[in-house]
Amino acid sequence: MVFALVLVSWMRFARITRSLTIELYKKDFITQAKLFRLPFLLIIWRHYLPNLGPDLLVVWTSIWSRTILSISGLSFLGFGVQPPLAEWGAMLMDGKPYMETAPHTMIFPGMAVLFSVLLLNLLGDHLRNGISAHEKF
């Protein structure tokens, strides 16, 4: 299931990488590096990767949080991992009949999903704010 979700989500990552690369291609420091006839791999190593890395890290955190929600949702619906394996969505589904008598069987897996997605989103926001605070090359 994770493999299938990764196959679907790589397109968003590639599209954002392409748009950021096109934006960087138009910058003056890339033009100057080409005018100095620096080797192509050196331009990539010194200019493209340091400027693409932080932005792609922010996108990566949002994709991870979306993947956690997708896996939990599919497992809650019964399309995820099977009962011998532990997964938060499956735990929510297993605790559903006991919601009135033992609500902790649904509260703790739900809080685990909530806090993991929240922390990944806050990490992405923090990284994005840190990136915008620093001046790029």
Key phrases:
single chain, 137 residues, mainly alpha
Structure description:
The chain is built from five helices and no strands. The model has no long low-confidence stretch (mean pLDDT 85). It has one domain. With 137 residues, it is an all-alpha fold. The chain is 79% helix and 0% strand.
Specify the helix fraction band.
Answer: over 70%
The figure for the number of domains is: 1
As residue ranges, the low-confidence spans are: none
Please count the helical segments. Answer: 5
Structural class: mainly alpha
Terminal CA distance: 40 Å
Biggest pleated sheet:
none
Write a brief structural summary:
With 137 residues, the chain is mostly helical. The protein is built from five helices and no strands. The chain has helices at residues 2-25, 28-35, 40-77, 88-95, 104-133.
Helix and strand topology:
Layout: H1 2-25, H2 28-35, H3 40-77, H4 88-95, H5 104-133
Helix pairs in contact: 1-3, 2-3, 3-4, 3-5, 4-5
